[in-house]
Queue: 2 jobs
Job 1
Amino acid sequence: MKIGTGLYGCNGHQIQHLLENHPRARLAATACIDLSSLPVSLRNDPGVRHYATLRELLADPDVRLVSLCSPLRSDQAEDAIQCMLAGKDVYAEKPCALSEEELDAIIRTARITGCRFREMAGTAFEQPYLSMRNLVRAGVIGEVVQVFAQKSYPYFEQRPQDERIDGGLSRQAGVHAVRFVEHVAMQKVSEIAVVETQLGNPVSNGGLHMAASFMMSLANGGVASAVVNYLNPQGFGRWGNEHLRIFGTSGFMEATDGGVRTRLIAGDRDLGEIDRSEPSQDYFDRYVDELIGLAAMPYEPEEELHPTRMVIRAKSHSWFE
């Protein structure tokens, strides 16, 4: 029996294409979805019901799991809580909350209801980052001392000037960078700060931050830094310009230019490109496998959500020019 899945909102990376011919999950219903965004096979499926509100979606007994890309990210924590109070498991776009109080309420509600809550947090299981994570775990570069991360995206006119819509640069893009630190380099962030700027925002009096820089202390005594921005030019040729450099006591590794180029140094050996032959692991697939009892997720919820907690904390004390 495939898991009946409801889609709410399309503000983010909604999973409609993953549900087309998925072996263990199926689209049961939608709400606040542009139907033209659905694959044709799902758009024309008479078994898929379409609602106007989340409340109607939650009343559908065929929906066991809700994928949240809420129209306003500022509403998403409460949306997630309402889903779980209705007995639905939740898979949520990042950031799933905009305050630590909201994040704590999500975790608490999941614990009370027994529903499984997960954020769309699969960065570490995509190549080349999966191989880098495995190399860290194997101790190939020794103890991790310093990490540098970068997430750069293009600016376009539809970028929200109101951070309530998508969470804003430091939270919605910054969480990827902090996941690089925690889920790939596998070092928990203990302290974090961010500085932001609106310089370069073409909208006069707009609220969009164009760039942010993070500084972090790590629980093992190491340090990390990250830059995130909406300054990736069209000529780069890729949507995201990601960099990740991990420095250890016995080596160094990097993935640059959107993960296209990699390099591994271990002691006095230049091992060249990192072996990326292991297939990437789809995070939604792992989540569905957990729901039906086939496998466990790689993190406990608090560990998975800790990067989100850290960018929320940084944002709450940010300063900008």
Note: The chain has ten helices and 15 strands.
Job 2
Amino acid sequence: MARFDDLGGMARMHSNVRHLVREPLPVAGADPGRLAHMIETQIIPRLMLLHGEPDRCDPYVPIAQAEVTHFAGLVLTRDTALGAAYLASLRARGASLEAIFLSLFAPTARLLGDLWREDVYSFAEVTIGLSRLQQLLRGLSAPFEELDGTPPDGRLALLAATPGEQHSFGLSLVETFLRRAGWEVEVAWGADERRLKALVRSESFDLVGFSLSCDVLLEQLSSTIHAVKQASRNRGLKVIVGGRYFTAHPEMVARVGADAGAVDARDATAQADRLVIAPAASVPR
């Protein structure tokens, strides 16, 4: 996310987002559950494919900070279809799904977190916005994973937020990229240390990935990594960490007991592939 040189710049950005939310376009009389399912399974994929295959687009089409701010405003409205239509406009401009995931979705999630921390939006409002962002991601994940994707090769990853973390949208991006690279992935949403230990005892995971946004839970993460490695059924278990905190403090990766750190979902996949080499042929577990 772009830095701002003064508080006035941040205030103007927040004002722009709030302005968008004041003029929502609800769908009158629609059942929310049915509408959400339709958007996720029909509208989003069709809008994305309308302008060509995702891997035929330019992965380097720039997505500016102003576009991130605008999109954040859209996911904070009542109509997810607005966000889908905006994504379609980016696709028409030539942006690949990878660029949308890394240069739009990821910074939008960070921006929503900032808006909550600075008390511009409530926790509930931001949670709803993130759920809409999650819905848009789900609608795009299947075509992204299928195009030029690798068939499952037997490697198994477990992803989790550091116990106590409030938001973990980045894990969904990592999950999507890992699946495209041939990994089988389980995401332990909201799992505490006890649950994570039980999971690695019951299944021979090759890799565990953790996210962390700030230093408040640094000791908790270090303790959890140690406990998971001790409990793991696979004695050669590898651990990677990511999130805003490790992007700013890469020197802390080794200090918490991780084998590698990642700056985004693409880098996490590259690190995972480096730590755990895919077998020549899939072996049933």
Note: Confidence is low (pLDDT under 50) at residues 1-30, 281-285.
